[in-house]
Amino acid sequence: QVQLVESGGGLVQAGGSLRLSCTASGSIFSLSIMGWYRQVPGKQRELVAAISSGGSTNYADSAKGRFTISRDNAKNTVYLQMNSLKPEDTAVYYCNIRGAFIAVSGGYWGQGTQVTVSS
């Protein structure tokens, strides 16, 4: 089992920045796909950004140009740098780990961290 611990959420004004961090337990981090998702009440959880074990990235259209996902395999940590934040970015952000070495369908999830952007 992999445990994910997120941090870095908070309250920020529109136009501001936050950096989320997610640290994974275990030894398979470097072999895994890491993703950041977000969810608002009443809506489905949606992908924000993902990064492969090789460093390839993909972003939701809403995140392109504003958010950057990165990983530090030596620290078992994935980051999400969020710039130019908008009120519609307000959500609970979840970290996810998945890949060929993780048997659980959909992988493992962190507990979530709240991001609130005020207008």
Structural notes for this entry:
- The radius of gyration is 14 Å and the shape is globular.
- Helices cover 0% and strands 50% of the residues.
- The chain has no helices and eleven strands.
- Strands 2, 4, 5, 6, 9, 10 and 11 form a seven-stranded mixed beta sheet that branches. Strands 1-3-8-7 form a four-stranded antiparallel beta sheet, with no helix packed on it.
Percent in helix:
under 10%
Shape: globular
Average of per-residue pLDDT values: 96
Instruction: State the secondary-structure class.
Output: mainly beta
Number of DSSP helical runs: 0
Cα radius of gyration in angstroms = 14 Å
Strand content: over 45%
Largest sheet: 7 strands, mixed
